[in-house]
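Hi W., the pyridoxal-5'-phosphate complex you wanted:
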Amino acid sequence: MAGMRLVFGCQAFINTALFEKAVMTPAPKPGILDITAYVGGRASAPGAVKVHKLSSNESPLGPSPAAMEALRAASHDLQIYPEGSAKLLREAIGAVYGLDPARLIGSGDGSDAILTMLANAYLRPGDEVLFSEHAFSLYKIATLANSAVPVIVPEKELRFDVDATLARVSAKTRMVYIANPNNPTGSYISHAEMRRLHEGLPEQALLVIDAAYCEYVRRNDYEPGVEMVSQFPNVVMTRTFSKIHGLAGLRIGWCYAPASVCDVLNRIRGPFNVATMQQKVGAAAIADRAHVEKSAAHNETWRGWLTTEIRKLGLRVDDSVANFVLIHFPAGVKSSAKADAFLMSRGLILRACGSYALPDCLRLTVGTAEQNEMVVAALRDFMAA
Ligand SMILES: *Cc1c(COP(=O)(O)O)cnc(C)c1O
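Structure:
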């Protein structure tokens, strides 16, 4: 490599034309160069003594002890390829939710990879993909990467708007992505509204329900998508181990899909796309229902507390059913950018929401008791300063 660099360097110096030829690259598919690369939540706060990362909706309680034990036990036989269908993981998920393992697909690169794989499998150049104004940025990336056309639907009071979405359906509509609950707004639509959305879609369109935060929702009118996938041939539900299971670092995701969609995904996915360790840890994590319940209960308590306390400071906080809240800041001296800098100086990292088209907002992940109290104290000082 060092030799290559040296050769190119010399050519650039003595023969510019030759150098330019050497750096010409093949053009990617149309759309790819329109993509703004995904930027994750920040992880460092320069100068802060201790950092609290509340920017990526990770679990403050971490993974189940059973998952940690499975991780230690899975460190043997790394020279052996994994079982290719992620059978162990699919059977564990199937047992917990009463789903047919044949209709589950695992992913060793999070549910992001499944959302992407669906786009790769179904989108043709020029196809239209509907998603909402403040949706997860991956939907746009997966759409553009397949030379398809994003159709961005306005929201109504920071909620997914079924009517506005249906009004934009055309003969070219091929896919609808909806995060339910949505990130970063924390809002959700009811099961009845989701059915109404589905009823208005043409048969050739796939409805992709991204239920990354579903385990946190405690509302009687909510359903993550299981019923609709069981009933319809064009609905897929994606899920993740990154949020309530506290395993974001291990990158495990899955989906429940119609048999025909599973057949398609099984043809295009990587042949060993879920590592042995991922299968074993995921299976142990999902079986530990007590840990899931504990994480949901912690979240319920502290999300309510954060919402109330931050509202008392005079800031708008939207109702959230997920493990984060969206805080709105006024323009001027108490702006979101100034709040962000102030919180950073105390090591508290929230998520700036400019990339979600919400530049006046910061998204706060529900943290440990100590972290939540620190954030409220810091915001109180910021507002008083
Ligand atoms: C966090 C998140 C996911 C999960 O992504 P993974 O790749 O499984 O870690 C999916 N969708 C949304 C909207 C999210 O916020």
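Residues 146 and 240 are 23 Å apart (CA to CA).

W.
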